[in-house]
UniProtKB/TrEMBL annotation:
Organism: Vannielia litorea
Protein known as: STAS/SEC14 domain-containing protein
Length: 143
């Protein structure tokens, strides 16, 4: 699955992993699954990992739609969310940054982008020893 997530309840964390060819549909499907997951709670920290994306097949219009959707989700939240996005330099980073700019400053959402996983985790206050499984079954150590 190109867009998947793992919830780590004891850390109040959602790890979202994007792999290969990513489309708007797979992102929306992942968000639908995540929000319906009984372990998901409002206010969880979010770690978005775009390092293994090879094709970000999302149009400019879809990027704008994501920004509006994010603003809508954020407006109805009662608890703040902190999101760390790990994304390499290049067109995928440019697309992610454009969505962040379109969303603008939101009181209940703090977003930062990183090249380095350890810096992203420090931003979220997550210990370096955490592990999770990627959609492909590979074990990733967060440090």
């Amino acid at each position: 699955m190109p867009c998947d997530y793992k919830i780590v309840p004891r850390r109040a964390l959602v790890v979202k992993i994007y792999v290969g060819r990513v489309t708007a549909r797979c992102i929306l499907d992942m968000y639908d699954r995540m929000e319906a997951d009984p372990e998901y709670r409002e206010g969880f920290k979010e770690f978005d990992d775009f390092r293994d994306v090879t094709d970000f097949a999302v149009t400019v219009t879809e990027l704008g739609n994501f920004a509006q959707l994010t603003k809508g989700f954020t407006a109805r939240k009662r608890l703040p969310t902190r999101k760390a996005v790990v994304v390499p330099d290049g067109p995928i980073r440019d697309a992610v940054l454009s969505v962040i700019r379109m969303v603008g400053e939101e009181e209940m959402l703090q977003v930062a982008t990183f090249d380095d996983v350890s810096e992203a985790l420090a931003f979220l206050g997550i210990p370096a020893a955490e592990r999770w499984k990627s959609p492909g079954g590979d074990s990733h150590k967060i440090h």
